[in-house]
Design brief:
By secondary structure, this protein is an alpha/beta fold. It is about 40% helix and about 15% strand. The protein has 17 helices and 22 strands. The chain has helices spanning about 10-20, 65-90, 130-140, 150-155, 170-180, 190, 205-215, 240-250, 265-275, 330-345, 350-360, 400-425, 445-455, 470-480, 495-500, 515-540, 545-550; strands spanning about 25-30, 35-40, 45-50, 55-60, 60-65, 95-100, 110, 170, 185, 195-200, 205, 230, 265, 280-285, 290-295, 310, 315-325, 370-375, 390-395, 435, 460, 505-510. It has a seven-stranded mixed β-sheet with strand order 16-17-15-14-20-21-22, with helices on both faces. Strands 3-2-1-6-13 form a five-stranded mixed β-sheet. Helix 13 (about 445-455) links the parallel strand 20 (about 435) and strand 21 (about 460). Mean pLDDT is about 90; it is low at about 1-5 and about 545-550.
Length: about 550
């Protein structure tokens, strides 16, 4: 049911569905790409559009400009509209529902007039260690450095001059949603990465709000008045205004009046895209960052700095193992090999180079031949690194081959994740199935097999593994549309997904291979020991941005 429609399919029915608005549109702002995905009445992807972008390290802060947000959204929508017209000969003027998703966490602070007070501080920044530690102790609840409240409180501690002027805080998805609808709201999953959620009320934890306000009294307005209102999946989150339609599509092709679902974070859309919203299910999302989400049957007994407690888009409790660094270094090395091929006079498409590089990992030694790699482009709180330096090292007796190099790069992408998942195992958290999605898993049987070894558990990949969060938020928009004007859909999210989206889904499940597990275990021991090398590299090698700021 979630398989992409072939061009030879019954175009007449699809043209009618598009013209009548029996579709849903999802837009996700990921770390390296903004993607728009249109789905049909059966929730299968019909067309897509995208825009590539990159964050900037400016004055020591990882950021994106709001101008880049607007222009990127417009290009993604424009390429989607062109794709629809090219495939089906129909202009897309409306859809049944629309949803926006984006990378979670970070700091977007606005004044009363809606002006951004300081440049957007993304989840990638690790400058809030003191604030996160103080709030974790205050709340008795882990507050990671990425969370919005940690950024706000660090600004309070640092006595930043903009703090008294803050009147609205939100995430990137919340910002875009407000531009489209005028409403200051957020889906509960995304909101749970701003401030702790009370799962009994599906709202911000009132005890912790009061504790924060007492601690920050006189330095920042009451926090409840700054945060977006919290909405569960399926709730009415407003409709596309005329200004919002122009923000997305300045050509005027898209008409206002489209209902929107609550804006969500990329973790929530990953859960939806893998149907991992029920207890004892989980998923791994691999992109610029890599993280695992496990839906809990019960609260954890202890506070763990390695584990975020967030929620599904429906408000159920989730343990999240979030690693700042994912597949970017793997992709960078693939790009180098692509440049080498071009230098030999045999240029190849980047996708083909990446796949060939990834597949070579299967021919490597089970432990990577004694090689060691760290993918740390930025800091990594789970391993106590405030900054990162991508690193490859080996002993003289290691076996340096392409296959071992590739396997080690994949292992390195999973290393920090394994350390966090080990904490979950110590809490005896039940897990029946782990789903995986993201670009790494488009190449069948490689990253999936090695992830199974890293987790010591079966890993399932569906046909939508490469569609990502844009498809997930489109499905959440379709869930909102299923309410047909009611306050909420008549079925909970998990039941609806199982019946309407994944009933006929085809899954490829890979069990852990014993030799791979033993090899990965040996690699992980080396990985933990080698963290001292990574720390030394951070201390010894300043970035060019740091050097220039010191001049």
């Amino acid at each position: 049911m979630v398989q992409r429609q072939d061009d030879s399919a019954a175009h007449g029915g699809l043209q009618e569905a598009i013209a009548q608005g029996r579709t849903a549109l999802g837009i996700e702002l990921g770390s390296t790409r903004i993607k728009a995905c249109l789905v049909g009445p059966d929730n299968a992807p019909l067309a897509s559009g995208s825009h590539d972008w990159e964050n900037q390290l400016a004055d020591g802060v990882w950021t994106y400009s709001l101008d880049a947000v607007r222009t990127g959204l417009q290009e993604a929508v424009a390429t989607l509209l062109a794709d629809v017209e090219s495939r089906y000969g129909v202009r897309l003027t409306t859809v049944g529902a629309l949803g926006v998703s984006a990378m979670m966490h970070g700091y977007l602070a606005f004044d009363e007039a809606g002006e951004l007070l300081v440049p957007f501080r993304t989840w990638r920044n690790t400058s809030t260690e003191r604030a996160a530690a103080e709030l974790t102790a205050l709340f008795g609840h882990n507050v990671p450095q990425r969370w919005s409240v940690a950024h706000l409180y660090q600004a309070v501690l640092d006595e930043e001059p903009h703090v008294p002027r803050v009147r609205h805080l939100t995430t990137l998805a919340g910002y875009v949603h407000r531009q489209l609808t005028g409403r200051h709201v957020l889906g509960v999953g995304d909101a749970s990465g701003m401030f702790p959620i009370d799962v009994a009320t599906t709202d911000y934890d009132q005890r912790m709000l009061a504790a924060f306000d007492e601690r920050a009294a006189g330095r920042v307005p009451a926090l409840a008045g700054l945060l977006p209102a919290v909405l569960p999946a399926g709730a009415d989150a407003g409709e596309l205004t005329a200004e919002g339609a122009a923000f997305l599509d300045p050509t005027g092709t898209l008409r206002p009046g489209i209902p929107l679902c609550p804006p969500e974070g990329d973790a929530g859309t990953g859960m939806v895209a893998t149907s991992s919203v029920a207890p004892r299910t989980g998923n791994v999302s691999a992109g610029t960052s890599i993280f695992a989400m496990v839906v809990l049957e019960r609260p954890l007994e202890h506070v763990h700095e390695e584990l975020d407690l967030v929620t599904t888009p429906a408000g159920d409790l989730v343990a999240m193992v979030h690693c700042n660094n994912g597949a970017s270094e793997l992709a960078a090395w693939a790009d180098v090999f692509g440049q080498f091929a071009a230098a030999l006079g045999r240029p190849a498409e980047p996708g083909a180079v990446f796949e060939a590089f990834l597949r070579s990992a299967l021919d490597g030694d089970a432990d990577g031949g004694g090689l060691l790699a760290y993918n740390y482009l930025s800091g990594e709180p789970i391993t106590g690194l405030e900054a990162g330096r991508p690193l490859v090292t080996r002993t003289p007796d290691s076996r340096l081959t392409l296959a071992n190099f590739a396997r080690t790069q994949v292992y390195g992408a999973f290393g920090t994740l394994s350390l966090g998942m080990r904490v979950l195992a110590q809490e005896q958290v039940g897990l029946d199935t782990m789903f995986a999605h993201g670009g790494m898993f488009k190449t069948q049987g490689v990253a999936q097999r090695l992830l199974a070894a890293a987790l010591g558990a079966p890993v399932a990949v569906g046909r939508t593994a490469g569609e990502g969060g844009a498809w997930g938020i489109a499905v959440l928009a379709a869930y909102r549309a299923s309410a047909a004007g009611a306050e909420a859909p008549d079925r909970d999210l998990g039941t609806w997904l199982a019946a309407e989206v994944f009933a006929d889904a085809e899954l490829d499940v890979v069990e852990p291979d014993a030799a791979d597990v033993a090899g990965y275990t040996a690699f992980l021991e080396r990985y933990e020991a080698g963290l001292a090398v990574e720390r030394a590299a951070v201390a010894a090698l300043p970035t060019r941005d740091t050097q220039e700021s010191d001049r």
